[in-house]
Design a protein that fits this description.
The complex is a heterodimer of chains A (305) and B (276). Helix content of chain A is 37%, strand content 20%. Chain A is of the alpha/beta class and 305 residues long. Chain A has one domain (6-81, 159-304): P-loop containing nucleotide triphosphate hydrolases (Rossmann fold, 3-Layer(aba) Sandwich). In chain A, the strands form 2 sheets. Chain A has a 7-stranded mixed β-sheet with strand order 6-7-8-3-9-10-11, with helices on both faces. In chain A, strand 1 and strand 2 form a beta hairpin. In chain A, helix 2 (97-108) packs across helix 3. Chain A is globular, with a radius of gyration of 20 Å. The relative contact order of chain A is 0.16. Chain B has a single domain, classed as MetI-like fold (Orthogonal Bundle), CATH 1.10.3720. Chain B is built from 11 helices and no strands. In chain B, helix 4 (81-112) runs antiparallel to helix 5 and helix 4 (81-112) packs antiparallel against helix 9. The chains are: A alpha/beta (305), B mainly alpha (276). Chains A and B meet through strand 6 and helix 2 of A and helix 8 and helix 9 of B.
Chain lengths: 305, 276
């Protein structure tokens, strides 16, 4: 098997049940990898543990089973090698826009001179189109601008892996579209490895190389890995005309609406198996290039069961 | 023309003040003797003429005299109001300073460590409700110095609001900001200084503001006990002199200085406030 830059092996999160109750397993047997320079989105219904997976990757949360290995090293605790963009921006409100960025840059490169830090920070503020507001406090910025600052902060530290937890969830549709394009633009320039949570199917197709699909929790699993074989550079207006677009979209929607429940139900009936499994890998699907989608689906069901 | 609300409020305040002073002045008729004074009363100089709450006019007159020469010093029992207030302020600020020195680090410890919170909480809960003046005899015996004992009383009463607010502010810093510190690999010391301190600063300043208010309340009582100097001693001394005009004047001064102390800390807290 090919070795990935980031390996997630048999990851599970369980919460102890009270008294005689059984442990609550949010998700289990998550096995997947991410390659260097890849943009991977993960989609699933609320409560399937997407955020928990992201927090474990970030080192902010601990897994009950399994391990995360990045660059042949196990992930233990948070690190500057893994930047995080939080859904609620998490800017420090008492610092100006610029100082929020220099805060991160200085933490990343403690040896840098003041000028170096400033120049580097301004470069990334410029990249997200925020030159001119660097002295404003986050409270004086709109939601979209705040998330831009947050993205600039994460990209400025140039982490090996960037984790984004529903970064556009709190934004209105118009702003969201604009920032998605900006994110695409920055990504084309940097080829930053990204792992992103989203609820938005179109956003996932626009941005990612691969989309991981999770079944419903509890006992959620990473069931499928959908390749988005649409050439880059992409943009919002043209991507919908690509012949593969709706094939992928339909596949994703069908999974979320119908199959995410069925797969969980069939997995839950098999509760006797509590052993950690490193063998259950998500089924690789490529709806855009594969005409026999239904056959693929049937096969994926079989394997997951 | 529409006057601003601030202006109208000032007018109402002034009217109220004038009405209250007017009533006070108006009701303040020197008592006329119903019965002729006895021989004894005549011998005492017809004291009933003076045994009344002084009218505002004489308080204002005294205030003008005292404030036009606040720093005179003609012996232990006759010092200007400025000197007395200066002594009190010195004690309050010294006690407050040492209290901050102790309360802020312990507050951080209690706020950041759930273990220390549980361990120290019983001590705080028992010590906090003790009236600071109850410490006075013990302080006098151990320290053997009335001046330092007064400062100690201020110290002990200033600690609690600062400590509790610091612990509360530190413990309730948003987890998101702590996570930002963690993902940027900030050590515990840097996290405390760069993230927790600015995040909790408004709550800490609120605690300091409550503390200095309490300290100013307590210093008057403490100085009545230890005597010698200070505004509390001044009030009690004038009471012993049966000089009610001076008593009322010093009460007003206590109020004004207390207000100024609060305003000063209010200014400082505005510097550390932030909008989310």
């Amino acid at each position: 098997m090919m070795k990935h830059f980031l390996e997630v092996q048999g990851l599970a999160k369980r919460y102890p049940g009270s008294g005689n109750e059984q442990n609550l397993t949010v998700f289990e047997n998550a096995n997947f990898g991410i390659n260097k320079g890849e943009f991977v989105c993960i989609i699933g219904h609320s409560g399937c543990g997407k955020s928990t997976i992201l927090n474990i990757l970030a080192g902010l949360d601990e897994a009950s089973d399994g391990a995360v290995i990045m660059n042949d090293k196990e992930v233990v605790g948070p690190s500057l090698e893994r930047g995080v963009v939080f859904q609620n921006y998490s800017l420090l409100p008492w610092r100006s826009t610029l100082k929020n960025i220099t805060f991160a840059v200085r933490a990343r490169w403690p040896g840098w001179s003041k000028e170096q830090v400033l120049e580097h920070s301004m470069k990334f503020l410029d990249l997200v189109g925020l030159k001119g507001v660097e002295q404003r406090k986050p409270s004086q910025l709109s939601g979209g601008m705040r998330q831009r600052v947050s993205i600039a902060r994460a990209f400025a530290t140039q982490p090996q892996l960037l984790l984004m937890d529903e970064p556009f969830g709190a934004l209105d549709a118009l702003t969201r579209g604009l920032i998605q394009e900006e994110l695409l633009k920055i990504w084309e320039e940097t080829h930053q490895t990204v792992f992103m949570i989203t609820h938005d199917v179109d956003e996932a197709i626009l941005l990612s190389d691969r989309i991981l699909l999770m079944t419903n929790g509890p006992h959620a699993q990473v069931a499928e890995s959908v390749s988005v074989s649409i050439p880059r550079p992409r943009n919002r207006t043209d991507i919908i005309h690509h012949p593969g677009y709706y094939k992928i979209r339909n596949h994703l929607v069908d999974f979320l609406v119908n199959r995410s429940k069925e797969l969980t139900a069939s997995a839950a009936s098999d509760t006797t198996n509590t052993e950690v499994s490193y063998d259950i890998h998500p089924v690789v699907v490529d709806p855009a290039n594969d005409g026999s989608e239904t056959a693929q689906q049937a096969q994926s069901k079989q394997v997951a069961i | 023309m529409f006057a601003s609300q601030r202006f109208r409020a000032t007018v109402v305040s002034l009217v109220l003040l004038l009405v209250l002073l007017g009533i006070w002045e108006g009701l303040n008729i020197a008592p006329t003797d119903v019965a002729p004074q006895s021989e004894y009363e005549l011998l005492m100089g017809g004291a009933s003429q003076e045994a009344r709450v002084p009218p505002p006019s004489s308080v204002i007159k005294l205030a003008y005299e005292e404030l036009s020469n606040p720093f005179y010093d003609v012996g232990p029992n006759d010092k200007g109001i400025g000197i007395q207030l200066g002594y009190s302020l010195y004690r309050v600020l010294t006690g407050f300073f040492f209290a901050a020195l102790v309360a802020l680090p312990i507050g951080f410890l209690v706020g950041m460590s759930p273990l220390m919170h549980k361990a120290l909480d019983p001590f705080i809960q028992v010590l906090r409700p003790i009236s600071p003046l109850a410490w006075m005899p013990l302080a006098l015996f151990i320290i053997q110095d009335s001046e330092a004992s007064a400062i100690f009383v201020i110290f002990i009463c200033s600690i609690w609001p600062m400590l509790i607010n610091t612990a509360f502010g530190v413990a309730n810093v948003r987890q998101d900001w702590i996570n930002v510190a963690r993902t940027h690999e900030l050590g515990p010391f840097k996290t405390a200084l760069q993230v927790i301190l600015p995040a909790a600063a408004p709550t800490i300043l609120t605690g300091m503001r409550i503390s200095i208010g309490i300290a100013w309340l307590v210093i008057v009582a403490a100085e009545m006990l230890v005597g010698g100097t200070g505004i509390g001693y001044y009030v009690w001394n004038e009471w012993n002199n049966l000089d009610l005009t001076s008593v009322i004047f010093s009460i007003l001064m206590i109020g004004i200085v207390g207000m100024l102390l609060d305003l000063a800390l209010g200014r400082v807290s505005r510097l550390v406030e932030y909008e989310e």
